[in-house]
Amino acid sequence: MKTDLLRQVAGVFLLGTMTWVIFVSITGWSHARYEAQLEDLTVSRASLVALVQRMSELPEDLAKGRSIPETLLWPGSDQGSDLQREIVDLANETGITLTSYGGSVGPTDLEIPTVAFEIEAQSDYSALTRFLAGLERLQPRVSVGSLWLNRLQPSPERPDSARVTLRLAVWGFLALQDGAP
Questions:
Q1: How many CB atoms are located within 10 Å of the residue 10 CB?
Q2: CB under 8 Å to 169, separation ≥6 — which residues?
Q3: What does the pLDDT read at residue 100?
Q4: pLDDT averaged over every residue in the chain
Q5: Is the model's pTM score more than 0.70?
Q6: Residue 79 above 70 pLDDT?
Q7: Which of the four pLDDT bands, split at 50, 70 and 90, describes residue 33?
Q8: Helices 125-137 and 81-94 meet at what angle, rounded to 10?
Q9: What residue intervals traverse the membrane (predicted)?
Q10: In the chain, what is the greatest distance between 2 CA atoms, to the nearest angstrom?
Q11: Which residues pair with 147 in a beta bridge?
Q12: Which of 41, 69, 72, 175 lies 20 to 30 A from 25 at CA?
């Protein structure tokens, strides 16, 4: 009888211990999830504060969507001759060979008019990187609508020189003749 009683006590003790271990495991796991979510919330809150701060630094007209800074506007007509001239000049300066170029269609879902330009070219990698770096420095700024690269087979005379073909579409905001976007 004592043995049965000891077995029952041992069983209850073992069941209690297992219950405690399961409880501690579940609460520990839940607490870890809670801490991770709290950290994510803190990061999100910090991002929101930074975004609100950046928005407060915008000029009032821009924040209300009325206009964009003049430094982002390409002057000229709908044909975008200024943008075209800048891109062609940059291509010539950096050593890429233009195979075709011309006007293109910019984003159609914007309220502000845009001017777009597309080129096809061939170059080596170093000229391409110089061209793309120059494109980043263009003033007014441009956006890349698409960039397509294709590596060409190396020539037998220079197997170490990698050449690429490039198709690039860029666009920018257009200043109308009266200067308003």
A1: 10
A2: 104, 116, 117, 118, 144, 145, 146, 147
A3: 92
A4: 81
A5: no
A6: no
A7: confident
A8: 140
A9: 12-32
A10: 105
A11: 168
A12: 41
